[in-house]
Structure formats: C-alpha cells, structure tokens
Amino acid sequence: MTCSDLMRKYSRYLLVLFNIFFSITGVIIISVGISAKAYYHEFDTFLDNKYFYVSDLLIIVGAIIFLIAFFGCCGAVKENSCMTTTFSTLLIIIFILEIIAGVSGMLLKNKTEAFLTETLNTTMKQYSENNTEIAEIWDKVQTEFKCCGIYNSTDWTDVGNKEIPMSCCKIPPATMNSFQCNTTNAYHTGCLQEFGDFIRDHVTTIGGVGIGLAAIQLLGILLACYLAKAIRSDYETV
C-alpha cells in the first residue's frame, strides 16, 4: 500500500468521525439558537428583530448540518467523489453562514447599549401613560434583574411618575400591604446595565458559537476536499 493510499484511507475515517462530531455541533447550534430566542422572547417588546434573526439563522444552520453530515458520511464510506464534493460545497456554505451569524452577534453586542437606551427611554414614558403591556414588561425586567429605571430610580420621577413602581423594590413579606417603594429602598442599579448585560451575554454566546464552530469546520472542509481530489485521481488513472 502506497503512502497516498494510506493517507486517503485515514482521511476517509477522519471524515466519518468528523461528521459524527459535526452532527453533534448541529445539536449544539440548534440548542443555543432556541435558548437565546426563548430568553429574548420574554422581552421582545424591548428588542429589535435583528436579535431574533441571528437566533433563527443558527437554528436553520443547525438543521441543515444534519443533511450535510449525511452527504459527508456517505461520500467518505462509499468513496463517492460526487457526494464528497457536494459535502465540501455545502460545508463551505455553512461555514460562511456561521461566520455571518458570529459577526452579526458581535456587531449587535456593540450596538446593544445605544439601542436599549433609546428603547427604555421610549417605553418608560409609555409606562407612565398606563400602557399595560409596557408596564408588565418593565415590571418583569426590574423584578428579574433587580434594577430600577434606566440609570437609577430617579428616572421614574423625571418622566412624570408620581411614584416609583413597586417592581423597583424587594418587598419584605411582613410589610406587603404597607410597603412604600422610594429612592432610598429601591434597587440602586439601572436596568440599562443589568438588562443590557443579559442581552450582551446571549449575543456574545451566539457570536462565539458561530465563529468557534466555523473555525473547527475548516478541518472538515480540508479533509473533504482532499478525499474528493484523491477519489477523482483514482478514476482518472483507471
């Protein structure tokens, strides 16, 4: 057995193993996309559709990966040049999509503070106008992230509210009926920081997963291209 035969044999096995791992990455990508979308969905009124688009892109990429893995495994096992070439091409497309998702995530992370500042300012005024939907989301954000206002509790009085929302405070059970939330006992951290960190963390995860897995897939692209070239060479010499 020649050196080239050994290299082709082992590259075939490596490609099969890579596709098993590739399928696992598909599950990871889908899980990250669904998780991020579920977290964002709770606060969709406060978020731009771009945050959901990036999550959707990851879910789509993860689903397509299973189809691509099939071509890769079949092409490697049967040493089918056409299927291996198809796998290489599809893998390159997925590689590009993952890079797009990763870069988009990083760009959204950098724009989160400016976007949230505008959104929180706008919706805070609607809260004071008794907008029930906005009020529920603001109360959820302040309760869940233990924050108050945009920068601090005084933001509420600045927009015309006579009282600070009760969601700005941790209410002791014994004083449930008589408790008054004010600037003294309200949460000291603004929601721009706490809620913003939550959004940025998930966007960073999406970006990291996209770019990280894309980098790993370069190995699969190289293996598939090498195997396809080796198979074609065999056909040409027959």
Walk me through the structure.
The protein has about 240 residues and is an all-alpha fold. The protein has one domain (about 5-235). About 75% of the residues lie in helices and about 0% in strands. The protein has six helices and no strands. Helix 1 packs antiparallel against helix 2 (about 50-80), helix 1 runs antiparallel to helix 6 (about 190-235) and helix 2 runs antiparallel to helix 3. It starts with a helix and ends with a helix. About 35% of the residues are buried.
The DSSP helix count reads: 6
Order of helices and strands: HHHHHH
Mean pLDDT: 80
Helix fraction by DSSP (H/I, runs of at least 4): over 70%
Distance between the ends: 17 Å
Coarse shape: elongated
Low-confidence spans: none
Radius of gyration: 26 Å
What about the largest sheet?
Answer: none
Q: What structural class do helix, strand and pairing data support?
A: mainly alpha
Strand tally is: 0
Strand content: under 5%
How many independent structural domains?
1
